[in-house]
Structure formats: C-alpha cells, structure tokens
Amino acid sequence: EINNGRLAMMAMAAIVAQNGATGQSLVEQFTTGNLNPFVGGYAQQEQGDRIAMRANSEALPWAPVPENLTNNIIGPYVGDAGFDPAGFAKNTRLLPWYREAELAHGRVCMLAVLGYTVQTSGAKWEPFITRYPTDSADPLKAATQVPIIGWLQILTVIALSELWRYENVISKYSEGVAPGDLGWNPVAPAGSKRPKWFGPTFEAKYTAEEWNNMKLREIKHCRLAMVGFFFMVLTNASTGVGPSLIPSFTQSEFQSSVGDFIPKGL
Predict the structure, then answer these.
(1) Nearest of 245, 205, 210 to residue 224 by alpha carbon
(2) How sure is the predictor about 114, in pLDDT bands with cuts at 50, 70 and 90?
(3) Angle, alpha carbons 35-40-41 (nearest 5°)
(4) Over the stretch 116-175, which tens digit does the pLDDT of each residue have?
(5) Whole-model pTM above 0.85?
(6) CB-based contacts of 192, cutoff 8 Å, min separation 6
(7) Sign of CA dihedral 254, 255, 256, 257
(8) Where are the alpha helices (DSSP H) in the chain?
C-alpha cells in the first residue's frame, strides 16, 4: 500500500505537469499521437501548439481562458490571471459587481488581519461607551463582549458606508465609474469617471504604470488577506487564542522546564 501510494503521488504530479506543459491530458495525447511532452508531439505542428499554450489561463495552465476574461493582470480588471473555475465571468452584467465585492471583502479582511494582530499583541482600546473589559487573547470572545449599543454603532457606520458606495459607485458603472474606486485620490490617473468621496482625501500623483502596479498590489494583498483571515478565524475558534502576524516566542512548559518533560498537573 505504501509503495503504491508513493508511486501514485509521483505519477499524478507528472501527469499534472505534462498536462500543464502541453495543454492536453494524458488520454488526449495518446489518442492524437502527441507523445512529446514538450512541444506537443508529432501529430500537431509546434507553432499551433505553442499558440494553444498561450491561450491557456495563467492561473490554471491546463485550462482555457475563461469566457469574458482577458488573462491579463494589467487589463481592464487588474489582477485577472484567468482564474474562474465556477464560471462567474459569464455574466457580463454582474462582472463589475463581482470585482467590487472582491475589493470590498479584501479591504475589510486586510483591516481584520491587522485588527487581530493589534488586539492579540495587547495594544487595545477599551470601548468608550462601556466599562466592561474585553478579552485581548481571544478576539472572537471579545466580539461577544461588545454591548448592544456598540453593535448598533458598528452596524450604523457600515450601513451608511454601504449606502454611499451603492449610490456613488455601484449604481454608476454605466457612467464609467470603475468598481472599487472610492475617489480617495482625486488626482490619480484612473482613466475613468471618479466618484466624490464625502470625507477627507489625499493627493498623490502617479504615472499610469505606477497606478496599475498599485492596483495590482492591492488586489494581491486583498486575496491573501481573505485567505489569511479565514484561517485566523479557524485557528481562533479551535484553540481559543487569536493568531497574530507578530510571531510569539512563548515556550511551552515542557520546553522551558529543565529535566521535566511531562507538563505539571498530568
């Protein structure tokens, strides 16, 4: 069993690598006569096979570019690497809204990851509306310690922010407003109609290339933060302790006690 398991793992890795390099599955290669794992074999011309390879998704090299996506990370949707296994991009009417949702959730998760780190490090601020203490080590438990009036304040701010975003961004896609553009930097070379932010703004001048690079960095950090926050919540729920971006060097009892390898109390 263990020998067959190791052999199967190696074989599966080779099959995936060959599929990604040629754009064909193992069965397709045998049925068409394409037995060369590098250029597509003898049944097809090399040029045509290389063109087919370029038409594949950047994120999933063995799959074609999804419908309505450009597979260009600096295209209309910055960060588009041709990843759409569920086929959401087929709905062109909702595609801008999907990008809006991705950016909104990613930005919230970046703040949430930072909030986890701040709270678990002990640098917290007690709610000014209550004198009840909150737990720093367990952010999920701390959320249950927020009083009702505190949650009402949080929900009110969220509702007003979402209402502004719908009125000034989401409902203005047809007028040229880009998804996720909040208008914080009015002088940025967005190349589209800008919404007018109701609060303070800042002015930082970028070239078009620099602006696209900034947007690419943002979407990459958004995606990483969404995955990271998901696992931070799982870790918090399963251990009762909130994880942090700052590494903890606290040693376990059996590691710090000389000559005592069994934790006390057992």
Answers:
(1) 245
(2) very high
(3) 45
(4) 888 888 766 655 555 556 667 888 888 887 888 888 999 999 999 999 999 999 999 989
(5) no
(6) 176, 177, 178, 181
(7) positive
(8) 2-22, 26-32, 46-54, 95-120, 139-144, 148-168, 208-239, 253-256
Cα(117)–Cα(110) distance, integer angstroms: 11
Res 104: pLDDT: 95
- State how far the Cα of 148 lies from the Cα of 15, in Å rounded to an integer: 56
Residue 40 has φ and ψ, to the nearest 5°, of: 100, -5
Measured CA distances, 12 to 2, 18, 126, 178 (Å):
15, 10, 53, 42
Query: Over the stretch 169-203, which tens digit does the pLDDT of each residue have?
Result: 999 998 999 999 999 999 999 888 999 888 888 88
**Alpha carbon distance 92, 73 (integer Å):** 18
Q: How far apart are CA 89 and CA 91, in angstroms?
A: 5
**Lowest mean pLDDT segment, chosen from 65-79, 167-181, 250-264:** 250-264
Instruction: Supply the DSSP symbol for 140.
Output: H
Give the angle 31-34-16 at the CA atoms, nearest 5°: 90
- Answer positive or negative: Cα dihedral of 209, 210, 211, 215: positive
Q: For 226, what's the count of Cα atoms within 13 Å in the CB-facing half-sphere? A: 12
Three-class SS of residue 170?
helix
User: For helices 95-120 and 208-239, what crossing angle results, to 10°?
Assistant: 60
Can you give the pLDDT at residue 120? Answer: 84
